[in-house]
Design brief:
The complex is a heterodimer of chains A (334) and B (332).
Chain A lengths: L2 E17 L5 E16 L3 E6 L5 H9 L6 E6 L2 E2 L9 H6 E4 L3 H4 L6 H12 L5 H11 L16 H13 L5 E5 L7 H18 L2 E6 L2 H7 L2 E6 L2 E7 H6 L4 H9 L5 H6 L31 H5 L5 E4 L2 E3 L17
Parallel strand pairs in A: 3-8, 3-9, 6-7, 7-8
Antiparallel strand pairs in A: 1-2, 1-4, 4-5, 9-10, 10-12, 11-12
Helix pairs in contact in A: 4-5, 4-6, 6-7
Chain B lengths: L7 E12 L2 E13 L4 E5 L6 H8 L8 E10 L2 E2 L5 H11 E4 L3 H4 L6 H10 L10 H14 L5 H6 L7 H14 L4 E5 L7 H18 L2 E6 L2 H7 L2 E6 L2 E7 H6 L4 H9 L37 H5 L5 E4 L2 E3 L8 E2 L1
Parallel strand pairs in B: 3-8, 3-9, 6-7, 7-8
Antiparallel strand pairs in B: 1-2, 1-4, 4-5, 9-10, 10-12, 11-12, 11-13
Helix pairs in contact in B: 4-5, 4-7, 5-7, 7-8
Classes of the chains: A alpha/beta (334), B alpha/beta (332).
Chain lengths: 334, 332
């Protein structure tokens, strides 16, 4: 399979203040701190993490809302951030985003027709726009008369569907879904997800699915990556990921999920119980950032930040438990 | 368990909201009971009337627009609907505590944690007995220690903004339990927290209420939390209680078509794909569907559902369902 997006050592630091005298050094938040991953054409990569882990920053960099501090993003081999800072419109057309809260991502003073017309006017000039809008609404199973409705007349689920239609208006190949269903009820979530899956099939879309819901990713993603405080801890094929979670943080996440059946209860890793607080991203612990909560913490963890290692085919993990040639010397998890 | 008198009993509670367009029929005859020491879940999707029910118990529904047109609420044998303000404030002060979804919004940002604790403890004192500053401080420190927060003295001097989300929710739990209430209403207590932190907070909450033998009503739309936290569950749809069962039975044998749909749409950790969801959407409360309010979305619809509101049938011990599919069973 060909690669559609290649991210190499991506970093994004935000300056949040200054301190010290006389040099006034800046205080930075390392929102994304050196992450690398690739996305294959047509796949769904689930990017999972808790709030403040930097997953949305990755999304915003990819669509071009932020420029990275360092590192490279290549879309089909082409660098997304060029020296002159301007992204060609053709690349903008290819990468679209659906935001978490449809209540604030749709302009309340524009009707659905206007909302869908904007991307069409920019990216597909000359075509019959009204026809296009009817086609887009039909794609997402909405009757054409919705065109003249305003966002406040729609339910949360319908608003999110309009946001999906807007993202599809430019005929993209990579769609970033930034927690598209976390503001919706489960029965509405199911409908929205099924629509997204159908559209993916129909148009061979690639999804970067950002979420904190691992149960959902189990059923939707082809691969899953876990982020913790700006870094990817583990990335693997979905089946492998859920059957053999390696990183202690992944195990903690999985064991914390409230589930609704006995089989799922039996499926959860038992060894790692959630303890401790997520440290402030301004003042990270030295070494591995998970040391403050990790039940398997070793001296080396507090000193050296572990590198990403390949623990199995396509299964990468960033943890000292797996960097030793003989991981059996330590009481390894699961 | 059933020999004891119920701690809370709601009978045929009907609430309407009077708005410009007419009357919203928000609660349509809710029946609910719970015994001392029970942990009861109240599940349903956004806008089904869960929070309205709880606000009615505390008599904090804003009126207007709310009108409680019918129904009785008994708390510890006392008639809440006919209470005077003084008795009500006693119930709110010492009888029932509440934990809200968003701890950031529940705490006042301009008062220190200590000041906010002070008020809660001060007004929970029995009438005629006032607490000294030392006593209040001591009880606040104790409450913070109970919720496993380190350095309570410093915490009491800090402001909500200085705490993390998980710590704020712990403070709220501590505050709610500091008055030793008989009943704790927890409205989506972990939803705004991250999953690992939510797990910690819920485990703490469960340990504390079991230690103190506090009764709990857990309001949520996350079925997983209900399964892990409660003994018995009520399922609510569009202002009606559609099913009530012991938690284990509800998940192994859901009876109402709505409950079945709801459970099937939850994505499973073990895989298996995404179910198709429940067709349609929650009805408009201005003109709710006649008969069973779920009938426009129901896969098993019969003629009678369109015209008559189903009564509650008792299918098994402690398993009630309001659906004509179970007509042959006994009326509860």
């Amino acid at each position: 399979m060909t690669e559609i997006l290649t991210v190499t050592d991506l970093k994004k630091y935000f300056v949040v203040g200054r301190s010290g005298w006389p040099k006034r050094e800046s205080i930075t938040v390392k929102a994304v701190d050196g992450i690398s991953f690739t996305m294959r054409e047509g796949e769904t990569l689930g990017l999972v993490g808790e709030s403040g882990s930097g997953k949305s920053t990755v999304a915003y960099i990819t669509v071009g809302m932020y420029s990275p501090t360092s590192g490279s993003l290549k879309f089909r081999g082409q660098e997304l951030f060029q020296a002159d800072g301007k992204r060609p419109i053709r690349l903008k057309k290819d990468i679209q985003i659906v935001y978490q809260d449809p209540g604030s991502s749709l302009n309340p003073r524009r009707n659905i027709k206007d909302i869908l017309e904007m991307p069409l006017r920019l990216h597909q000039p000359g075509k019959n726009r009204l026809e296009q809008i009817v086609y887009l609404l039909d794609l997402v199973d909405m009757p054409p008369e919705y065109m003249y409705k305003y966002p406040y007349m729609l339910s949360g689920g319908e608003k999110q569907i309009v946001a999906v239609a807007r993202a599809l208006a430019t005929d993209p190949s990579l769609v970033i879904l930034d927690e598209p269903t976390s503001a919706l009820d489960v029965s509405v979530q199911a409908k929205t997800i099924n629509l997204l899956l159908r559209l993916q099939q129909e148009f061979q879309l690639t999804y970067l699915f950002i979420t904190h819901d691992l149960s959902l990713m189990r059923n939707v993603a082809s691969r899953v990556a876990i982020m913790y405080l700006g870094k990817i801890c583990e990335i693997a094929e979905t089946a492998d990921f859920f059957q053999k979670p390696l990183h202690p943080y992944t195990q903690m996440l999985l064991s914390s999920i409230p589930v609704i059946s006995e089989e799922e209860e039996a499926f959860k890793p038992k060894k790692v119980i959630s303890t401790g607080e997520i440290p402030s991203p301004v003042n990270l612990p030295s070494g591995c950032s998970f040391t403050t909560r990790c039940p398997f913490v070793m001296t080396v963890c507090r000193e050296i930040d572990p590198a990403m290692v390949e623990a199995g085919p396509g299964h990468k993990v960033r943890c000292h438990l797996f960097t030793q040639p003989e991981p059996a010397t330590v009481e390894g998890p699961g | 368990m059933n020999e004891a008198r119920p701690l809370l009993e709601i009978k045929d509670l009907t609430v309407q909201f009077s708005v410009y367009a007419g009357k919203l029929q928000v609660l349509d005859g809710v029946d609910f009971y719970m015994y001392p020491g029970e942990k009861v879940g109240l599940v349903g999707e956004t806008g089904c009337g869960k929070t309205t029910t709880m606000k009615a118990i505390l008599r904090v529904l804003p009126s207007p627009p709310a009108i409680i047109s019918r129904g009785d609420i008994f708390f510890g044998g006392q008639d809440v609907m006919r209470m005077n303000e003084e008795d009500l404030s006693r119930v709110r002060g010492r009888g029932i505590s509440m934990i809200f979804q968003d701890p950031t919004a529940a705490l006042n940002p301009v008062f220190s944690i200590g000041e906010q604790f002070g008020y809660v403890i001060k007004y929970s004192a029995p009438p005629g007995k006032s607490l000294t500053k030392q006593e209040i401080h001591l009880r606040a420190v104790n409450a913070l220690q109970e919720v496993a927060l380190a350095d309570p003295e410093r915490l009491l001097r800090s402001y909500p903004i200085q705490l993390s989300g998980g710590m704020r929710q712990r403070v709220c739990i501590g505050m709610a339990l500091a008055t030793n209430p008989k009943l704790l209403i927890a409205d989506e207590p972990g939803t705004s927290l991250d999953v690992t932190i939510q797990d910690q907070v819920l485990r703490l909450l469960r340990t504390l209420v079991e230690e103190k033998n506090t009764s709990v009503i857990l309001i949520t739309h996350t079925l997983g939390i209900v399964r892990e936290m409660t003994d018995r569950v009520y399922v609510m749809y569009a202002g009606d209680i559609v099913e009530m069962a012991v938690t284990k039975n509800l998940f192994s044998n859901p009876l109402h078509p709505y409950t079945q749909g709801l459970i099937s749409t939850v994505p499973r950790l073990t895989g298996g794909g995404i179910a198709s969801g429940i067709p349609g959407r929650i009805p408009n409360y201005l003109t709710p569907p006649p008969g069973c309010r779920f009938h426009p979305r129901c896969p098993h619809i019969m003629d009678i559902c369109r015209t008559e509101k189903p009564p509650t049938y008792r299918v098994n011990d402690d398993h009630d369902v309001a659906c004509f599919l179970y007509q042959t069973e006994n009326r509860a």
